[in-house]
Queue: 2 jobs
Job 1
Amino acid sequence: TSEDASSYLISSLQGFQMGADKCMEIVDKYNEVANNFAIDTRGIGEALQRSAASFNAANTDLSKSIALVTATNTVVQDPTSVGTLWKTMSARIRGAKTELIELGEEEETIIESTSKLRDMVKGMTGFDIMKDENTFKDIYDIVVGIGEQWDKLSDIDQAALGEALAGKRNANALYA
């Protein structure tokens, strides 16, 4: 419906802290992806409605966020769970414990220190999730960086890393 479309657009504008003058840019990106990939504009909107602010908090721009949502939804085929995956992963990377508990994550699975998560990822893959001591790389670059080493990891390491980044419930969606 047009009401849903407006809601999705407003969520993206607010989540990515964009001005109203960026509406057409967002619509154009949604349409371009929907015309070329296995997701419609509604699916993109639903996923970003849940995750736009989290992507933004994790230094990930709209285009890269749409790419992650689209790629994940190609396999998962559920925009709502795709949005939850990326919201959860953003919170896990940033060590946002309160946000994770609100998402229903089990407290014992939360790596509370970003330095511990950074050390884990770097130790397993050689990839650093940080640009510098105070700034995370964006989620897209983190996924691509880890993905380049993924096939070299043992099944046990893949499972441990997937759970650390996405949580038990979302790890399979991350693998997508």
Note: Strands lie at 130-132, 135-136.
Job 2
Amino acid sequence: GVIIAIQTFGELLNVHPHLHCLATDGCFDQEGTLDQVQGRLFYRLPSWVDMPRLTELFRHKVLRMLLCKGKITEALVENLLSWHHSGFHVHQGERIEADDQAGRERVAAYILRAPLSQERMAYREETGEVIVLSGKKGKEKKVFSALDWLAAVTAHIPDRGEQRVRYYGRYSNKSRGIRKKAGQEGSEEPFVV
């Protein structure tokens, strides 16, 4: 199961599209064989995943998908593949156990956070400027005119009806509906974001 939150913003309200994904670190068997923890047999991934290799695989899959959909050209793919810093990154955070309520809440709050925190923003009434500090202990800052700040903030408002959180696999509506119909839905769902 995977939960994906689409983010559009960087530290200083810049456009920085990226995904935050919560993924099960393994898979359940198809039959739903009982185990002692979740009521199903769960196969965990090893704790050592080759992240640079996974990053490269993700990069190639995304570029291939965009090429197949006609969104980019073969020349652009070659150009992007030649970059030393690919622009792709995959991070494996610490494993969050099913009974770690605080850990689940912390990661859910992180992936669903707003583009800007009021604690990192100040308005200078005398100049009409808005100062935005980065989340990195305020080491970086950007000064906007009031209108430029409004434009930067509104660039991150989703279109009407646009879903910024997507559920796949075990967490998808279809999968949850099938389990509910079979009478298997219940307290087993560790993540609902």
Note: Residues 160 and 185 are 31 Å apart (CA to CA).
